[in-house]
Specification:
Helix content: 40-55%
Low-confidence stretches: none
Strand content: 5-15%
CATH superfamily of the largest domain: Butyryl-CoA Dehydrogenase, subunit A, domain 3
CATH class of the largest domain: Mainly Alpha
Shape: globular
Radius of gyration: 21 Å
Structural class: alpha/beta
Distance between the termini: 58 Å
Number of helices: 12
């Protein structure tokens, strides 16, 4: 089988280090993925391996003992991780995004001195838990009313300020890492003094998984990404101390408006799945995938060659657009840069499933058996377009509206 090629080039030293570390573990992650998918079992062994190499701290700043990866470094790392196991990469995104939001994004805001000092003390404790205790943070986002996650309404999960902290109450659905995480980085709305909820008062709070009032419920028997353990969570008057604030009050809402690329951190997972589907299809037609028929007539078929070419074109389009928007990720992007981020999210998510569809068709009937990787990749890839806050439909809606209207126009 040909050597595994880099998804992106050139890689800087940090990216090379991260990619090589993941690639060394990748075949075992891929092997474990079959059982994890079949049983709907969280990839705990993969996380243990990541922790062994300190990769759980990939984008914790180096001054706190982390590996100091940038947003781009994380994206490259995540894509390579997903190439070997999509569910591991997708769940790890929730942890890594929490680390990034509290560091890279917060640091781009000009905070008052007191707020900055308080946040610095809070995040130092958070990073200490990650680096020295191996803590993993989930990021439950979705709720029964999807309008909140889409940015159209306050979150139903509420944080009421009390002496020393907050009392958190509410329900989250699709809470990846629900049974594994040590902390839930909960996006919720802080009640004002009149008990009212306003979308601008969104806060991000780390709720300990073992705190009184935290309850897991429901099952997780779904089409794809079955190993993410994304059951539902209920928070019933859970007390959370002030020091567990992951972003200063009000900054999450401002970041969602001024730092929109924070929401494309899911895309590397689906780029990796796209690459894995292409790799598998080529290996299958060459007779090099385990269980595949010997190389013969199929790879000489003009129809199959054209389909593989279509797969490569879609893959290259996705990677090129992603590479560009990740280099544009920053505070206050231009209108064109923001629209391009929507276009990238849509393209990566939709192309992932289209590439997997072509892979199934090219490989033929026996590839639908669950002992073949392409079957799982196809199911996993279908989930990307559904993920809030930027589903495929939301991206299309925003691209169309913002192309036709300037702010303030009706």
């Amino acid at each position: 089988m040909p050597a595994v090629a880099d998804m992106f080039s050139p890689l800087n030293a940090n990216q090379r280090r991260f990619v090589d570390a993941v690639r060394a573990m990748g075949p075992e992650f891929q092997r474990r993925g079959f059982a994890n998918d079949a049983e709907g079992k969280f990839p705990a062994a993969n996380y243990a391996d990541l922790k062994k190499h300190k990769l759980h701290a990939v984008n914790v700043p180096s001054r706190y003992g982390g590996l100091g990866g940038s947003y781009m470094d994380y994206g490259v790392f995540s894509a390579e991780l997903a190439r070997w196991d999509g569910a591991t990469a997708l769940t790890f995104n929730m942890h890594a995004a929490t680390m990034m939001w509290s560091s890279v994004i917060v640091d781009d805001f000009d905070l008052p001195a007191e707020a900055k000092k308080k946040h610095e003390a809070n995040r130092a404790k958070v990073y200490e838990k990650v680096v020295n205790e191996g803590a993993i943070f989930a990021q439950p986002f979705s709720e029964p009313n999807s309008a909140a996650a889409a940015g159209r309404a306050p979150f139903g999960t509420a944080a009421k300020r009390v002496d020393g902290g907050f009392v958190v109450s509410g329900t989250k659905h699709f809470a990846s890492l629900a049974g594994y995480a040590d902390y839930y980085a909960v996006v919720c709305t802080e009640e004002d003094k009149d008990g009212m909820h306003d979308v601008t008062n969104t806060v991000l709070i780390a709720v300990p998984a073992k705190a009184n009032g935290v309850r897991l419920f429901g099952g997780w028997d779904v089409l794809g990404m079955r190993a993410t353990d994304s059951r539902s969570l209920e928070f019933d008057d859970v007390f959370v101390p002030d020091e567990n604030m992951l972003m200063p009050p009000g900054i999450y809402y401002q970041a969602a408006v001024k730092w929109p690329h924070m929401f494309v951190s899911l895309t590397p997972s689906y780029l990796g799945i796209s690459q894995a589907a292409f790799d598998f299809t080529v290996a299958y037609l060459r007779g090099e995938a385990e269980g595949a028929p010997p190389a013969g007539g199929p790879r000489h078929s003009a129809a199959k060659q054209m389909a593989v070419a279509q797969m490569r074109i879609k893959l290259e389009q996705s990677k090129a657009l992603w590479w560009k928007i990740m280099h544009e990720a920053r505070m206050n992007p231009t209108k064109e840069e923001r629209l391009r981020a929507y276009a990238c999210q849509y393209t990566v998510m939709e192309h992932a499933n289209e590439i997997c569809q072509l892979g199934l068709r090219v490989c033929g009937g026996r590839s639908i058996f669950k002992n073949f990787l392409i079957e799982r990749l196809y199911r996993d890839s279908r989930c990307g377009s559904l993920m809030l806050p930027w589903t495929a439909e939301i991206c299309l809606e925003r691209m169309g509206r913002e192309s036709l209207f300037e702010p303030g126009e009706k």
